[in-house]
Amino acid sequence: MLYYRFRTFSELTLKELLYNEMYFASPEECNDPFDSKTFYTFPSDKYRWSKLILLAFCNSKP
Predict the structure, then answer these.
(1) How far apart are CA 37 and CA 27, in angstroms?
(2) pLDDT of the chain, 62 residues: tens digit per residue
(3) Is 7 exposed, middle or buried (0-12, 13-18, 19+ CB in 10 A)?
(4) Eight-class DSSP state of 59
(5) What is the CA 37 to chain-centroid distance, rounded?
(6) Are 22 and 5 a contacting pair, CB within 8 Å?
(7) What is the pTM of this model?
Protein backbone atom coordinates (compact mmCIF):
# COMPACT_ATOMS: atom_id res chain seq x y z
CA MET A 1 0.00 0.00 0.00
CA LEU A 2 1.28 3.44 -0.86
CA TYR A 3 0.84 6.49 1.30
CA TYR A 4 1.22 10.02 0.01
CA ARG A 5 1.95 12.93 2.26
CA PHE A 6 2.63 16.47 1.12
CA ARG A 7 4.81 18.48 3.45
CA THR A 8 7.01 21.49 3.35
CA PHE A 9 10.72 20.81 3.17
CA SER A 10 12.40 20.57 6.58
CA GLU A 11 14.78 18.39 8.60
CA LEU A 12 11.85 16.25 9.70
CA THR A 13 10.95 15.61 6.07
CA LEU A 14 14.47 14.39 5.39
CA LYS A 15 14.38 12.16 8.46
CA GLU A 16 11.16 10.55 7.26
CA LEU A 17 12.76 9.80 3.90
CA LEU A 18 16.10 8.59 5.27
CA TYR A 19 14.70 6.31 7.96
CA ASN A 20 11.56 5.26 6.11
CA GLU A 21 9.39 6.55 8.95
CA MET A 22 6.08 8.33 9.05
CA TYR A 23 4.68 10.35 11.93
CA PHE A 24 1.04 10.14 12.95
CA ALA A 25 -0.29 12.40 15.66
CA SER A 26 -2.22 10.90 18.54
CA PRO A 27 -5.84 12.01 19.01
CA GLU A 28 -4.74 14.15 21.97
CA GLU A 29 -2.41 16.15 19.70
CA CYS A 30 -5.10 17.01 17.16
CA ASN A 31 -6.78 20.38 17.37
CA ASP A 32 -10.15 19.24 16.04
CA PRO A 33 -12.38 17.29 18.45
CA PHE A 34 -13.72 15.24 15.53
CA ASP A 35 -10.31 14.06 14.29
CA SER A 36 -10.02 10.28 14.47
CA LYS A 37 -13.72 9.93 15.27
CA THR A 38 -15.76 7.47 13.28
CA PHE A 39 -19.44 7.99 12.72
CA TYR A 40 -21.45 4.93 11.79
CA THR A 41 -24.93 5.01 10.36
CA PHE A 42 -26.99 1.91 9.85
CA PRO A 43 -29.90 2.62 7.53
CA SER A 44 -32.82 0.22 7.58
CA ASP A 45 -32.56 -0.90 3.96
CA LYS A 46 -33.31 -4.64 3.77
CA TYR A 47 -31.95 -4.99 0.25
CA ARG A 48 -28.54 -3.52 1.17
CA TRP A 49 -28.26 -5.61 4.36
CA SER A 50 -29.17 -8.85 2.61
CA LYS A 51 -26.72 -8.10 -0.20
CA LEU A 52 -23.97 -7.34 2.33
CA ILE A 53 -24.60 -10.59 4.21
CA LEU A 54 -24.65 -12.61 1.00
CA LEU A 55 -21.42 -11.05 -0.21
CA ALA A 56 -19.68 -11.42 3.14
CA PHE A 57 -20.66 -14.96 4.04
CA CYS A 58 -22.01 -16.83 1.04
CA ASN A 59 -19.34 -16.03 -1.53
CA SER A 60 -16.35 -16.78 0.68
CA LYS A 61 -14.05 -19.61 -0.38
CA PRO A 62 -13.59 -22.54 2.05
Answers:
(1) 9
(2) 666 667 778 888 888 888 888 777 777 777 777 766 777 777 788 888 888 888 888 765 55
(3) exposed
(4) S
(5) 11
(6) yes
(7) 0.32
